Amino acid sequence: MSDQENMGRGRPRQFNIDDALDQAMQVFRSQGYHSTSMSELCQAMDLTVGSIYKAFGDKPTLFAQVFGRYLSLRNQALNARLKDSENGFQKIQILLQFYIDSVQDIEGKRGCLVVGSAIEIEVLNQQLAQAVELALNKNLSNIKQFIEEGKQDGSIGKQLNTDTAASLLLCLVLGIRVAGKISSTSPNDSIISLMMGILKN
């Protein structure tokens, strides 16, 4: 998808919408919604303020598009890993590994847009706050589904309380993204085996 930026009297310059959103995404992930200025977005996206408003709208509208694209890309990446899973236990194992891998190197330092936005939810408008809440609830729902699948296929203990375990897992994956922003606290694969042991018992 592409759009045009008006270059004065010269010919309009083509730019890729998705590429521009990806550049804005890096700024929002690194600095958060509230701390990101339009001038910083202009620099990152290599567009004028007018072009950003024309193509994406104001800052909240731009952020909503960035947030939607972030979720789409993350879900695509996770689903690509999950497609070869054999049971609910493996799905949770893959999910945890996905989050561990997400905090490696520069990716980890940039942080998770969902987690960062949840921390800032009080400064977001109602529409954005609802989008963040929906994303978190969707994550929780998916985890519950994986646990129930595991209990049905026998890979997870039937005595496990689904709601409690799902809440614990959600806190764990969100915590992984927070701890991953600092090298000294970045988690590794060892926490996966510990968590999976809880699900087995």
UniProtKB/TrEMBL annotation:
InterPro entries: DNA-bd_HTH_TetR-type_CS, Homeodomain-like_sf, HTH_TetR, Tet_transcr_reg_TetR-rel_C_sf, TetR_C
PROSITE patterns xrefs: HTH_TETR_1 (PS01081), HTH_TETR_2 (PS50977)
DNA-binding region range list: 37-56
Keyword DNA damage: no
Stretches assigned to coiled coil: none
Example of a GO MF term: DNA binding
Residue ranges of every copy of the HTH tetR-type domain listed in the record: 14-74
Alphabetical keyword list: DNA-binding, Transcription, Transcription regulation
Domain of life: Bacteria
Name by which UniProt lists this protein: Transcriptional regulator, TetR family
Lineage: Bacteria, Pseudomonadati, Pseudomonadota, Gammaproteobacteria, Moraxellales
